[in-house]
Automatic annotation (TrEMBL):
Protein name: N6 adenine-specific DNA methyltransferase N-terminal domain-containing protein
Domain (N6 adenine-specific DNA methyltransferase N-terminal) ranges: 6-44
Pfam families: HsdM_N (PF12161)
Keyword S-adenosyl-L-methionine part of the UniProt annotation: no
Coiled coil residues, start to end: none
Organism: Belnapia mucosa
UniProt keyword list: Restriction system
Similarity field: Belongs to the N(4)/N(6)-methyltransferase family.
Record flagged with keyword Transcription: no
InterPro entries linked: D12N6_MeTrfase_N, T1MK-like_N_sf
Amino acid sequence: MFEQTFKAIDDVLWKEAGCTTELDYTEQTSWMLFLKYLDDLEEWA
């Protein structure tokens, strides 16, 4: 499950022009996972 999620995020981020360094990549991945968590939490409530 996590592998598929990270693979999907990887595919999107590597195509984006704003992700040029590993730090950008890590920041964006963390942000996407946080937003997904909030979305799932909202659906549950």
